Amino acid sequence: xxxxxxxxxxxxxxxxxxxxxxxxxxxxxxxxxxxxxxxxxxxxxxxxxxxxxxxxxxxxxxxxxxxxxxxxxxxxxxxxxxxxxxxxxxxxxxxxxxxxxxxxxxxxxxxxxxxxxxxxxxxxxxxxxxxxxxxxxxxxxxxxxxxxxxxxxxxxxxxxxxxxxxxxxxxxxxxxxxxxxxxxxxxxxxxxxxxxxxxxxxxxxxxxxxxxxxxxxxxxxxxxxxxxxxxxxxxxxxxxxxxxxxxxxxxxxxxxxxxxxxxxxxxxxxxxxxxxxxx
Length: 279
Hints:
By secondary structure, this protein is mainly beta. It has one domain (32-276): 6 Propeller (Neuraminidase), CATH 2.120.10.30. The protein contains one helix and 25 strands. It is globular and about 50 Å long. The two termini are 31 Å apart.
């Protein structure tokens, strides 16, 4: 998410104000596509950003609050428990190997390994605007650097970053397939791309600020558009479907099981649970 807009949004949300989309008299109504419906899963989450579900079913979220007061939260039964409270624009979030991995989207942003039991942390690397983070099949971490000359990097054990591909225009959220394909949103061009073995392929084009991507267990690729209004999209077997529209700056996506998809709606400070009967 853009730094200036994030700071303004955080201030407004902290004051209890939900800003309106440009040219609109009121916030748009969220509408579900055919065969889909949604409910509010959690609320009172200003500046909620990315989501991750641990193997034990715990839901975690990052909050990009202003003034270096970002948080890592556990969300459970209507309660928001702070795991770490002094993060600087925490954005990307990954649950793997019994740990949480968090990126701080600032010029000298840390990639952190966090123990959810107590919040102990370890700095793995310092990168330029790190955002998306995923786990490669061989156990390595891949991270996107969100800048106008951004790149995908593989994080080495000593904290150095090996460039996989560069010259990208604001790569943000990413997901890794079982064969090692890296799917990512290139916000600056409105595209979703796939990277594997040195090759880039365009999967989607002409989107409005694509932000986060997530691979579902059935192989579908889910995408949020960080716009006001924005959309939650689903790409499966080459067909693109609008699952929700009228969202206010939707961000992270997580799969809660039983076909339920969670999406963070940052502009309204809440998480929605989406389900449906689409094939």
